[in-house]
């Protein structure tokens, strides 16, 4: 399925409100759209089916990460739980100098992302199969990355515990959340301490065109994470850090 003229215009217009000119890369988004909608008929990659929803809630929503100002230059970035490649693939398209590592526990989704990167000719990408709580204890990945991005579906305490051990000191976690995140940040300062993190900013923004409220939670890694973190998933669920 091809992106329609209306979908193309929506993407260009929405990106422009974020300060991004997608004219040089629009052909890659068109190919990404065609690939996603085709494979999604065979593999459940996304529940979104309508063109407008995919453009707004996958493509443009991913690009809101750029408003952090923290994704410029040849950085080592890990997209934790990338799923069908969001936010990692749109970010890589628009910022090709990023060295994007896409981490996903579901093998068929990671295979899709790997094949899609090859199809789009996205160089400087790597693929990590596994769960974040296990990968973060592997020496080759622990405290390796400059940035971690995540489309966050769980509480910020759990997200922080999974992502901060992957970051080097001086790195940043950029978590995409909804407006309800303020309630999740009670006790954040004390909770982040053993992870080596400090809350730097909660950036308020609106999704282009739809006006849906979004938040970017930005956490800086200022010290090494204590070795026991992240804990097992069931422990994290029962005993949150905040």
TrEMBL record:
Enzyme Commission number(s) from the entry: 2.1.1.-
InterPro entries (UniProt xref): rRNA_ssu_MeTfrase_G, SAM-dependent_MTases_sf
Main location: cytoplasm
Any one of the GO CC terms: cytosol
UniProt-annotated binding residues for S-adenosyl-L-methionine: 81, 86, 104-106, 132-133, 151
Assigned keywords, A-Z: Cytoplasm, Methyltransferase, rRNA processing, S-adenosyl-L-methionine, Transferase
Keyword rRNA processing tagged: yes
Location of the protein in the cell: Cytoplasm
Pfam families for the chain: GidB
GO molecular-function term, one example from the UniProt record: rRNA (guanine-N7-)-methyltransferase activity
NCBIfam families for this protein: rsmG_gidB
Family label: Belongs to the methyltransferase superfamily. RNA methyltransferase RsmG family.
PANTHER family the UniProt entry points to: S-ADENOSYL-L-METHIONINE-DEPENDENT METHYLTRANSFERASES SUPERFAMILY PROTEIN
Described purpose of this protein according to its UniProt entry: Specifically methylates the N7 position of a guanine in 16S rRNA.
Record's protein name: Ribosomal RNA small subunit methyltransferase G
Organism: Calidithermus roseus
Highest classification ranks of the organism: Bacteria, Thermotogati, Deinococcota, Deinococci, Thermales
């Amino acid at each position: 399925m091809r992106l329609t003229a209306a979908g193309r215009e929506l993407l260009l217009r929405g990106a422009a409100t974020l300060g991004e000119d997608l004219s040089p890369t629009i052909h890659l988004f068109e190919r990404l759209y065609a690939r996603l909608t085709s494979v999604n008929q065979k593999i459940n990659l996304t529940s979104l089916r309508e063109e407008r929803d995919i453009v707004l809630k996958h493509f443009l929503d991913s690009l809101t990460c750029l408003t952090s100002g923290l994704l410029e230059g040849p950085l080592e970035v890990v997209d934790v739980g990338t799923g069908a490649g969001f936010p990692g693939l749109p970010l890589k398209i628009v910022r090709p100098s990023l060295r994007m590592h896409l981490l996903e526990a579901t093998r068929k989704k990671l295979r899709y992302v790997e094949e899609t990167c090859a199809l789009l000719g996205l160089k400087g990408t790597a693929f990590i199969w596994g769960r974040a709580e296990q990968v973060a204890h592997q020496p080759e990945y622990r405290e390796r990355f400059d940035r971690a991005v995540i489309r966050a579906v769980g509480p910020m305490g759990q997200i922080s515990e999974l992502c901060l051990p992957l970051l080097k000191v001086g790195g940043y976690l950029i978590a995409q959340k909804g407006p309800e995140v303020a309630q999740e940040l009670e006790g954040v300062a004390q909770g982040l301490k053993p992870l080596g993190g400090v809350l730097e900013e909660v950036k308020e923004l609106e999704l282009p065109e739809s006006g849906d409220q979004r938040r970017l939670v930005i956490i800086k890694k200022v010290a090494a994470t204590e070795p026991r973190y992240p804990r097992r998933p069931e422990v994290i669920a029962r005993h949150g850090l905040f």
